[in-house]
Task: structure prediction
Amino acid sequence: MLNLTGKNALVTGIANNRSIAWGIAQQLHQAGAELGVTYLPDEKGRFEKKVRDLVEPLQPSVFLPCNVQDDAQIDATFEAIEKQWGKLDILIHCLAFANKEDLSGEFSQTSRQGFTTALEISTYSLTRLAAAAKPLMKEGGSIVTMTYLGGVKVIPNYNVMGIAKSGLEMSVRYLAAELGPSNIRVNAISAGPIRTLASSAVGGILDMIHHVEQIAPLRRTVTQLEVGNTATFLSSDLASGITGQVLYVDAGYEIMGM
Result:
């Protein structure tokens, strides 16, 4: 029912076939969007090959390296998009990282470097990418990012990533207020726990998933494709009146008190 034909969508954060970004990319493609994909470059090119092979069936017309800790790479990415497409309609931000040692144990023991790294990649990158995307969203657009319940409530071992997600959710609101006059909408999806490459670094992630399956109203957690459906909706004209919001896609877990 969703039709994104004629829309150009840039998806960041695909690492493998368990990535939430991969679920989103599939659903955007199914809705007819023209896809662009970024990957995290490494010296041996392993990430590039893995992501390229995975997304090949979706036939992305833009495939670029983009390390969000490198301003030159961010600028080059959006320059390439402007040259290839001329405009950008949809930006999907699925980027988060914290050192593994900062995702277990005592939060007060978070290192200065670990704190800075987590917020730079997981939080600031949304603002930086939105600033680069704004000039290309000439006809308006939609920016969607990924958050988690740990940004508003204490989740064991989530630690510094909870601070990063809290900052990310507030960034969504400030960006929505700034970009709204340009008809650019900014929203976040708070997904239930899903076993991904990123979440596997969180201590006790399987216990978290099992707990949600027992407590959530739907008695299960959610899938990457379910999150992808919501991202596709938020990227479409059907969501034209929605901005600055955090939508929970977590089988209802967020509403439970105990």
